[in-house]
Design a protein that fits this description.
heterotrimer, A alpha+beta, B mainly alpha, C alpha+beta, A: alpha+beta, 6-stranded mixed beta sheet, 22 strands, B: mainly alpha, two-stranded antiparallel sheet, globular, disordered N terminus
Chain lengths: 358, 566, 368
């Protein structure tokens, strides 16, 4: 049985439809990310779940409880929803000690002093903050502040945790550490996590399921991270996750050539079945193309940049520029060198952006 | 750090000049007061100080000052917080307009307000009192404005914007997720306000409240107009009374300096506490992204509260202003407000015929203009040394620059009297120069604050970029720094010019027969019973202020209110 | 165009010692990056070349001219050094238009108006801002403002260009674009560039040579980016430039073991390295992509403690003995043949390249 259900959710701001008929079901204990460009509606959806915005149409259920419903004209305010929430700018209260911050929700719920102390200490222990319990947030680092926010949210054992870009304000090393800690907390407490982010690496690292959204919170793909990366459902998802090349091709006698570069040689003999007319667009990742001295699709190295682990090449084939990335240990090609491209995985998308199977 | 690449000497010269200016203009007068208060015939005389303080009128004045300041602070804080919360955190209609209207009391000189309230609520002749007495057929007046209550009420009316501005600004800039996170933790609005919002607002509330206390302690106008009749004195009005009644006798000056010392100490204490509260309680509560804060839905209370706010503005702003203008149009004071009793003659008289008022208007204009110009220019130079130059000894300037903030106008006036009445060979007493010097001392701190803020906005890299383009240090100053701080300088000019134009507290102790200012003229006319002329000049002053405010908005593009106290 | 020579430069201000004995030559026409952690003093070096700071010791030469000498009390002021500077916060003047900003150096030099206009428009074209000459900086984006700063620095045809972290405030896409533009500009004009930054990605991407500064202000290594990245001289540089594994080892029964591991490490280790291992002076170092992961076999065995899928690569944290080692596989490779390595599973590691570094040169943070 699904734990959180969003049914036919629509939200408008003036004439703009921020969320357009969204339907989603989330299982208990799942970690799901809403991933999409700025302004696509992912944050609005999260805020509707929290109750800071109310939906115009549709309903939200948690367990078998209705949280908000336009059909039943019912709206439960945020303070009654019993969710945990972590914000991007931490939202930790500077005038309260770490302990008082974490104890706050328990105090509101009218627990006894000893119960408050016990649950607060538990939350502090699991977030590694026990030694800092009497400190004030201003004396602590960004990562510590985010831990306070986490501890505060788990202290009352919520079943649902909402996280709104919680790691954006942390430096890259801290982000990696906190990703791991959030995952560990989820394993221990078994709450459902709904996570909003624009950082696809973060979404991939944390989630059981990624929901890729375009404007209007329109779902482009709802799948595991591995599937979203290796089998993007459409061109939008392919382009949003990871680096991409989108190449136009022409088919001559069942051979596929890069457009205007027939003399460079065929890309492949296999091409997806399609109606006559415009062939689908070839999409491939820079890391899934290799450079060879002889053979392959012939081209010339236009640009080479060392990025550390990776060397980034721009290879000109006819009038097309293809981006290729190779590990730094592999032999290096210089700018101006002739080279050949070999493709290991090809993805095809038609002009509507839909995936065509090759 | 390494030294600058200017020739050794120029930077040090500028520093020396700046220190000299501040010492002569600011530090010496204050020191003289303290010296005069505590040292007699070369020896420390604490017993004499105690003896003066125990004189009944002196003691009472000190008590009154403290009582008034305390009450005004409390009342202003309540009013300020209430209205700030109403405007920033509820769905009150017409919020933008209300916000501007609440700032208007700031623009009105409070002693003009006091005169208006005197016209309305004096026990025998007050218009409202007379109206109520005839309505209810009573003999006794309902309100007596010549009382501590009256002084406190009027001062609060015109000082609460200090708190209002601080608190509404803080409420609007506060990060809304601080309250949202409380909400999702289970707290309702009352709990959130009590445990989160108010504590985080405390530094702003305290900052505003302390400013109110400072102004009230140092204020001359309202107690002078409303208190002297019934013998209620505070420190500034007693100082004035003693000095004028005695004609400059030693004991009076001494009493004056002792009282001034109390003012200086209290002011310093207040500023110190404000500093501590602000630095200790300064929390990072400013939001990054601009998100709408949580608004309380007033529902049934919406229109009643709007009505209340409008009523408040009407009573505290509209009523006195209308009264002033109506009385200014009366042929003779005491006549009813019928059209046949109205005339523009009072205005033409004070503007073109009456020597007292014509001189006063002229004096105020040229003194304020000159003082504003000089203070702004010197202030800019000193700020440049403090902000941009790397010279040893800068801290001295910073310290000296802060001093005048804590010194009330009365004290500056007295200090200037002590310094420039022949003591060092220069006698400026009874000339316009002494007022000029006092104004510079009074407003220097403000010029420093304003221009150093402007200079700090001009990052070092902007000058360095010019140097890298081939510009010498002076070229960089001319081409980059000066154009960028010009708006700040212009703003500083106007924000000194307007308050100086209408002030009373400082010039009332310094004026001579030909050097009255507008404020002094209004006060003198009121004291002499020439109510219609006082009202007419007040009306003219109000018109000038409004025009001036409009000019500020046009020139600087902001709605900074030049005002607060007088 | 000119070279820059720094001879035993010192920056000691009272009790505050930033660096001493700093010696470096930046060759005429090269793009040189000075790379180091925050606070190491790299900006101070740049500011001394620009003339914004006086050195406490040593000398600065631009071309043949001595521009700064602590001992000889020589200090040619900034405005006479004929340099171009681009600041981290762009330092574009808000009260002047794009044209006004870029033409300024020529106005100072009293270049004739017609020629100044031509050269200014040329510079603006070089940074692809043609058409925006009359805009004010507040109407431009961050990237455009940065380009105005670049044009302004170039228009007077300076001998050298100094860039102080100019790309830090831009987003990732813009950074990539501007990186390319700077490199392109340099190639076309041949101007000598000193680029100061803490971001190794930029430094690696655009430089002819990189100089790495340690936190103590010392110059750890200078060299070509590729060489420095793949084979740095010391552990600090290795750690600074990318993700590094530092693997403590021990000698047991004549064989080299990863600390805490029962299996001997099967890898090629030179006799010299073995000697130093015996003395306990060195640790092994390699990058995550230099480890091959297999299910069975391998040069040594470990257990997968954590697996993180990041898109193009899968990162593994593997416990070998008492040491956690970070390895990675390309996603396609990891999922080939169905099952990638799971958390808790045993696996084999083979090291493509092991370097040996002095424990002392690495610094405590590397072992965190």
């Amino acid at each position: 049985m699904a734990h959180v259900i969003l049914r036919d959710i629509t939200k408008r701001f003036g004439s703009v439809v921020a969320v357009d008929n969204l339907n989603l079901e989330i299982a208990r204990g799942e970690c799901i990310s809403f991933l999409g460009p700025s302004g696509c509606g992912k944050t609005t959806t999260l805020r509707m779940l929290a109750g800071f915005e109310d939906l115009d149409e549709g309903e939200i259920l948690v367990g078998d409880r209705v949280i908000s419903s336009s059909f039943k004209n019912y709206y439960l305010p945020p303070e009654k929803r019993d969710f945990g929430m972590v914000f991007q700018a931490f939202a930790v209260w500077p005038h309260l000690s770490v302990f008082d911050n974490v104890a706050f929700p328990l105090q509101i719920r009218g627990l006894s002093r000893s119960e408050i102390r016990e649950k607060t200490t538990t939350a502090l222990t699991y977030t590694g903050l026990l030694d800092a319990k009497d400190d004030y947030p201003n004396a602590l680092s960004g990562g510590q502040k985010q831990r306070i926010a986490l501890a505060r949210s788990i202290s009352f054992n919520p079943t649902v945790m909402l996280l709104d870009e919680p790691l954006s304000n942390l430096d890259p090393k801290m982000r990696e550490v906190m990703r791991f800690e959030i995952k560990e907390l989820q394993k221990r407490f078994n709450f459902t996590i709904i996570y909003v982010t624009h950082d696809q690496a973060e979404a991939m690292a944390l989630s059981d399921r990624i929901v890729v959204m375009d404007f209007g919170a329109l779902i482009q793909q709802d799948d595991t991270p591995v599937n979203v990366y290796l089998k993007p459902a459409n061109r939008f998802v392919f382009g949003f996750i990871g680096l991409s090349n989108f190449l136009e091709v022409e088919v001559v006698e069942k051979q596929v050539y890069l457009k205007g570069a027939r003399e460079a040689g065929p890309v492949t003999a296999g091409v997806p079945l399609h109606a006559p007319g415009k062939p689908p667009t070839l999409a491939c990742r820079p890391g899934e193309i290799d450079l060879v001295r002889d053979g392959g699709v012939r081209g010339v190295v236009a640009r080479r940049v060392l990025l550390g682990d990776i060397i980034d090449y721009r290879v000109t084939v006819g009038s097309t520029e293809v981006r290729v990335q190779r590990n730094v240990r592999k032999p290096v090609f210089n700018e101006g060198d002739p080279c050949g491209l070999t493709f290991s995985t090809l993805h095809w998308y038609d002009e509507t952006g839909a995936r065509v199977n090759g | 750090m390494t030294g600058t690449d200017r020739k050794f000497g120029l930077a040090e010269l500028l520093l020396l000049f700046s220190v000299l200016v501040l010492v002569i203009v600011v530090a010496v007068p204050i020191l003289l007061i303290i010296w005069n208060a505590f040292v007699v015939d070369g020896g420390l005389n604490i017993a004499g100080v105690a003896q003066v303080l125990s004189q009944p009128d002196v003691f009472q004045a000190v008590v009154n000052s403290l009582v008034i300041a305390a009450a005004v602070t409390v009342l202003s804080t309540i009013l300020g917080v209430f209205f700030a919360w109403l405007v920033s955190r509820t769905d009150l209609p017409f919020k933008g307009t209300m916000k501007l209207l609440f700032l208007v009391p700031f623009m009105l000189p409070s002693f003009i307000g006091a005169i208006a309230w005197k016209i309305l609520l004096s026990p025998r002749a007050g218009l409202i009192n007379k109206g109520l007495m005839s309505l209810f057929g009573t003999e006794q007046a309902l309100f007596n404005i010549y009382s501590l209550t009256g002084i406190i009420a009027v001062e609060s009316m015109y000082l609460f914007p200090f708190v209002f501005i601080q608190v509404s600004g803080a409420l609007e800039r506060m990060d809304p997720t601080l309250e949202e996170s409380a909400r999702i933790s289970g707290a309702g609005l009352i709990t959130i306000t009590r445990r989160i919002t108010l504590p985080l607002m405390l530094p702003s509330i305290a900052a505003g409240a302390l400013l109110v206390a400072l102004y009230s302690l140092a204020h001359f106008g309202v107690p002078a107009v409303l208190g002297t009749e019934s013998g209620i004195f505070n420190i500034p009005t007693l100082i004035y009374q003693k000095i004028y009644a005695s004609g400059g006798r030693f004991e009076a000056i001494r009493a004056g300096t002792i009282l001034s010392s109390i003012l200086v100490v209290s002011a310093a204490l207040i500023l110190y506490s404000q500093n501590r509260i602000l630095t200790a309680g300064r929390f990072q509560v400013i939001a990054g992204k601009s998100v709408r804060p949580m608004l309380l839905k007033l529902r049934g209370l919406k229109y009643p509260l709007l009505a209340l706010s409008v009523l408040y503005i009407a009573v505290t702003v509209l009523l006195p202003t209308v009264t002033i203008f109506l009385v200014a149009l009366l042929r003779t004071y005491g006549l009813s407000f019928a059209l046949e009793n109205m005339t523009l003659h009072n205005f033409t008289y004070i503007l073109f015929t009456m020597k007292l008022t014509r001189d006063a208007i002229w004096n105020s204009f040229y003194l304020s203009l000159a003082a504003a110009l000089v203070t702004m220019l010197v202030g800019t130079l000193i700020s440049y040394v403090i902000v941009k130059m790397r010279v040893r000894g800068k801290f001295l300037l910073e310290f000296l620059g802060l001093l005048p903030f804590s010194v009330p106008g009365t004290v500056i006036a007295l200090g200037v009297i002590l310094m420039w009445s022949g003591k060092f060979g220069v006698n400026l007493y009874n000339t316009a120069w002494i007022i000029f010097v006092a104004y510079i001392a009074r407003y220097m701190a403000f010029a420093l604050k304003s221009t150093s803020a402007a200079l700090e906005q001009v990052g070092d890299s902007l000058e360095e970029a010019a140097r890298a383009c081939g510009a010498s240090h002076w070229q960089a100053m001319k081409d980059v720094v000066l154009p960028l701080i010009k708006p700040g300088m212009v703003a500083a000019f106007f924000l000194i010019f307007l308050p100086a134009l209408r002030e009373l507290t400082t010039s009332v102790l310094l004026y001579g027969p030909t050097t009255r200012t507008i404020g002094v003229a209004i006060y003198a006319l009121n004291e002499d019973g020439e109510t219609v002329y006082a009202a007419a000049l007040s009306a003219v002053a109000l018109i000038i202020i409004v025009i001036g405010q409009w000019v500020i908005k046009k020139v600087t593009g902001t709605t900074k209110i030049a005002g607060g106290g007088s | 165009m000119a070279d820059v020579r720094l001879e035993k430069l010192g920056a000691v201000f009272g009790a505050h010692r930033v660096f001493e004995g700093f010696t470096l030559t930046i060759r005429d026409g090269e793009c040189f990056s000075l790379l180091g952690p925050s606070g190491c003093g790299k900006s101070v070096v740049m500011r001394m070349i620009a003339g914004f700071e006086h050195p406490s010791a040593g000398e600065v030469f631009i071309g043949d001219q001595l521009v700064s000498s602590a001992a000889g009390k020589v200090h040619v002021p900034t405005e006479s050094r004929n340099i171009g500077v681009v600041f981290q916060d762009y330092a574009v003047w808000p009260h002047k238009t794009v044209f006004g900003n870029v033409v300024y150096p020529l106005q100072i030099q009293k270049v004739a108006a017609a020629e100044a206009k031509t050269r200014t428009l040329e510079a603006i074209a070089q940074v692809h801002l043609t058409g925006l000459e009359d805009r004010y900086p507040s109407q431009l984006s961050g990237g455009q403002q940065q380009r105005v700063a670049l044009a302004r620095a170039l228009v007077s045809r300076p001998k050298i260009m100094l860039l102080d972290e100019p790309l830090t405030n831009l987003d990732a896409n813009l950074r990539e674009e501007m990186r390319f533009e700077i490199k392109d500009l340099q190639r076309r004009t041949g101007v000598t560039i000193l680029y100061v930054t803490h971001d190794q990605e930029v430094a690696l991407a655009i430089s002819d040579r990189i100089g790495i500064m340690g936190a103590d202000g010392s110059l750890r290594q200078i060299g070509d980016p590729h060489a420095i990245y793949t084979d740095p001289d010391d552990g600090f540089v290795f750690n600074f430039l990318g993700v590094a594994n530092f693997i403590p080892v021990e000698r047991r029964n004549g064989a080299v073991h990863i600390q805490g591991s029962d299996l001997p490490l099967r890898a090629e280790i030179s006799p010299a390295a073995r000697e130093r291992i015996a003395k306990g002076e060195v640790v092994a170092a390699c990058r995550p992509f230099e480890i091959d992961l297999v299910r069975d076999g391998g040069a040594t065995r470990g257990v997968v403690r954590r697996r993180v899928f990041l898109g193009p690569i899968v990162t593994y944290f593997i416990m070998v003995g008492a040491v956690e080692i970070r390895a990675q596989q390309e996603a396609a490779e990891a999922f080939r043949g169905g099952r990638p390595l799971e958390e808790g599973e045993a696996c084999g590691l083979t090291f493509q390249a092991l370097r040996w570094y002095d424990k002392a040169s690495i610094g405590k943070e590397a072992f965190a």
